[in-house]
UniProtKB/TrEMBL annotation:
<keyword id="KW-0813">Transport</keyword>
<comment type="similarity">
    <text>Belongs to the complex I NDUFB3 subunit family.</text>
</comment>
<keyword id="KW-0812">Transmembrane</keyword>
<dbReference type="InterPro" id="IPR012576">
    <property type="entry name" value="NDUFB3"/>
</dbReference>
<keyword id="KW-0999">Mitochondrion inner membrane</keyword>
<dbReference type="GO" id="GO:0022900">
    <property type="term" value="P:electron transport chain"/>
</dbReference>
<keyword id="KW-0496">Mitochondrion</keyword>
<protein>
    <recommendedName>
        <fullName>NADH dehydrogenase [ubiquinone] 1 beta subcomplex subunit 3</fullName>
    </recommendedName>
</protein>
<keyword id="KW-1133">Transmembrane helix</keyword>
<dbReference type="Pfam" id="PF08122">
    <property type="entry name" value="NDUF_B12"/>
</dbReference>
<keyword id="KW-0679">Respiratory chain</keyword>
<keyword id="KW-0472">Membrane</keyword>
<keyword id="KW-0249">Electron transport</keyword>
<comment type="function">
    <text>Accessory subunit of the mitochondrial membrane respiratory chain NADH dehydrogenase (Complex I), that is believed not to be involved in catalysis. Complex I functions in the transfer of electrons from NADH to the respiratory chain. The immediate electron acceptor for the enzyme is believed to be ubiquinone.</text>
</comment>
<dbReference type="GO" id="GO:0005743">
    <property type="term" value="C:mitochondrial inner membrane"/>
</dbReference>
<dbReference type="GO" id="GO:0032981">
    <property type="term" value="P:mitochondrial respiratory chain complex I assembly"/>
</dbReference>
Length: 104
C-alpha cells in the first residue's frame, strides 16, 4: 500500500524537526530584519522559518550553492577523462563516420 506521503508503507525518509527548534533570536541578520520591520510598524510572524538558513550545519549561501552545482564535478570529470583515454588506447569506434577509410 502506498502512503499519502509517497512512500511504500515505510513513512517519510526523514524526520521533520519541530518548529520550536528554530528561533531567530541570536541571528544578527534576522534580528536586523525584525528591527527594520518594527520601525515600519510591521511584524513577520514567520521569521523563524528563515532561521535554518543561518544554522552552522547548513553553511553559507555560497557553500550551499557550491555543493549544489559542483557536488559531482570531480567524479564526472574523472570518468569523462577515463572514458576518452580508454577509447583512444583501445582504438574505440570513429563514430561510424568512416574518416580516412574511403580514400577521400
Amino acid at each position: 500500500m502506498v502512503s499519502a506521503m509517497g512512500g511504500h508503507g515505510h513513512g517519510p525518509p526523514y524526520e521533520v524537526p519541530p518548529y520550536t527548534q528554530f528561533c531567530h533570536k541570536g541571528i544578527p541578520q534576522l534580528e536586523q530584519l525584525e528591527k527594520a520591520l518594527c520601525e515600519k510598524g510591521l511584524k513577520d510572524p514567520w521569521i523563524r522559518n528563515e532561521a535554518w538558513r543561518y544554522h552552522p550545519g547548513f553553511g553559507t549561501k555560497w557553500q550551499r550553492a557550491n555543493k549544489t552545482f559542483f557536488r559531482g564535478l570531480p567524479l564526472g570529470l574523472g570518468l569523462a577523462i577515463l572514458t576518452v583515454g580508454l577509447e583512444r588506447v583501445l582504438g574505440g569506434s570513429d563514430g561510424g563516420h568512416g574518416h580516412g577509410h574511403d580514400g577521400h
